[in-house]
Write a structure and sequence with these properties.
- This protein is α/β, with parallel strands linked by helices and about 190 residues long.
- It has a domain at about 5-135: Pyruvate-ferredoxin Oxidoreductase, domain 3 (3-Layer(aba) Sandwich).
- It is about 40% helix and about 25% strand.
- The protein has eight helices and six strands; from the N terminus they run βαβββαβααβαααα.
- It has helices at about 15-30, 75-80, 105, 115-120, 130-140, 145-155, 160-170, 175-190; strands spanning about 5-10, 35-40, 50-55, 70-75, 85-95, 125-130.
- A six-stranded mixed beta sheet has the order 2-3-1-4-5-6, sandwiched between helices.
- Helix 5 crosses helix 6 (about 145-155), helix 5 (about 130-140) crosses helix 8 (about 175-190) and helix 6 crosses helix 8 (about 175-190).
- It is globular.
- The two termini are about 30 Å apart.
- About 40% of the residues are buried.
Length: about 190
């Protein structure tokens, strides 16, 4: 088995770090060698955040280079477009169809690109796009977007659901566990018909 590369991208405060912790926990529990590298950037100010997760029998580096990602999990539309060059030709893209306006757009220095998801689809990319924010709110909190997206991701990976549930139990504080389990289930159900 070769090495699989996943990039998780979002904006500071969206919970990308918990998402990478959950994913890492699942992968380790299945006996994979796992390397994770987190780049925070201006995460405290709503800036871009990226986490590289690589796993396989033996992984030598956590860094994912352009054209190498098997999957990109984007917590926001613009972040999906920003990191697209890292996706393999036959890679998958999972996108939260949410717009978070970056500071250059707020200040008027730039414009937020229109029709991002449509343009990605026109390029023939395997894309799963959904409104993870509304599913998170349905679960009880907007902060659970990350766990909704983990539910979506779980449907494209070869690990049983109970492994993901065990990871949630290890990584999420008990007082938030039920809400996060509901968020995970809603995300998974959104793509498993």
């Amino acid at each position: 088995m070769g090495t699989t590369s996943i990039i998780i991208v979002g904006v500071g405060g969206q919970g990308t770090l918990l998402a990478s912790k959950l994913l890492g926990n699942v992968l380790l529990s299945q006996g994979h060698d796992v390397k994770v590298s987190e780049v925070h950037g201006m995460s405290q100010r709503g800036g871009s955040v990226v986490t590289y997760v690589r796993y396989g029998e033996k992984v030598y580096s956590p860094i994912v280079t352009e054209g190498e990602a098997d999957l990109i999990l984007a917590f926001e539309r613009l972040e999906a477009a920003r990191w697209l060059s890292y996706l393999k030709k036959d890679g998958k893209l999972i996108v939260n169809d949410q717009r978070i306006t970056p500071m250059p757009v707020i200040t008027g220095a730039m414009e937020y690109p229109e029709n991002i998801l449509e343009k990605l689809k026109e390029k023939g990319i395997q894309i799963t796009a959904l409104d993870a924010l509304s599913l998170a709110e349905q679960a009880g909190t907007a902060k659970a977007v990350n766990v909704v997206l983990m539910g979506v991701l779980s449907a494209s990976m070869p690990f049983p659901e109970e492994i993901w549930q065990a990871a949630l139990e290890k990584c999420v504080p008990a007082k938030f566990l039920d809400m996060n389990k509901k968020a995970f289930a809603l995300g998974r159900a959104a793509v498993i018909k």
